[in-house]
Amino acid sequence: MPKTAVFPGSFDPLTLGHESIIRRALPLFDEIVVAIGINAEKKTLFPDEKRKAWIEKVFAGEPKVKVVSYTGLTIDLCRKMNSNYILRGLRTSADFEFERGIAQMNKAMLNSVETIFILSSPELSAITSTIVRDIVRNGGDASAFVPKGIVLK
Ligand code: ADP
């Protein structure tokens, strides 16, 4: 069975931090499913289709990366994708505390799933989609924080 990881997130938008986590995880897995969580109650800055198209563009040359949108529980997506791994990035101890709860609850619901954490590269650990959105909303230039090929409009 191919080793598949699900990398869930909002990716509103994909940043250099996300890209780095995906690229560093590639040698560990046969396939990485970048899974854009769609939450009708959570207003995003960029539409679902745009967020998906950007990720597809950045990883166009990487056959191991697949991009999907999903609603519902991440463990249900793991079942659907035959994935035993959830991939997450860790920037700070605050990330760790938050992620620990989610990972432990996911494991309690679906014991076959392991969450794999990759520590952010130090130079990328300050980059968050939230700050990128703030820059864009206020008319600033956030292009240094997102992969080449993503034009934030
Ligand atoms: P969510 O809405 O689930 O927090 P995000 O799109 O913000 O989704 O993040 C998805 C994943 O990417 C999370 O595991 C997050 O910790 C990780 N991540 C975000 N930014 C960075 C970064 N700069 N370096 C490493 N990991 C990051």
Description:
This protein is an alpha/beta fold and 153 residues long. The protein is built from five helices and five strands. The protein has a five-stranded parallel beta sheet with strand order 3-2-1-4-5, sandwiched between helices. The longest helix is centred in the middle third of the chain and has 17 residues, at 93-109. The termini are far apart. The protein binds adenosine-5'-diphosphate. Adenosine-5'-diphosphate (ADP) is lined by residues 9-11, 15, 17-18, 21, 88-89, 91, 95, 120, 124-125, 127-129.
Helix % is 25-40%
Structural class given helices, strands, pairing?
Answer: alpha/beta
The CATH superfamily is identified as HUPs
Second rung of CATH, namely the architecture? 3-Layer(aba) Sandwich
Taking all Cα atoms into account, the compactness measure Rg is 15 Å
Number of domains: 1
Rough shape? globular
CATH topology: Rossmann fold
Give the termini separation.
40 Å
The small molecules bound here are: adenosine-5'-diphosphate
Order of helices and strands: EHEHEHEHEH
CATH class: Alpha Beta
Arrangement of strands in the largest sheet: 3-2-1-4-5
Oligomer: single chain
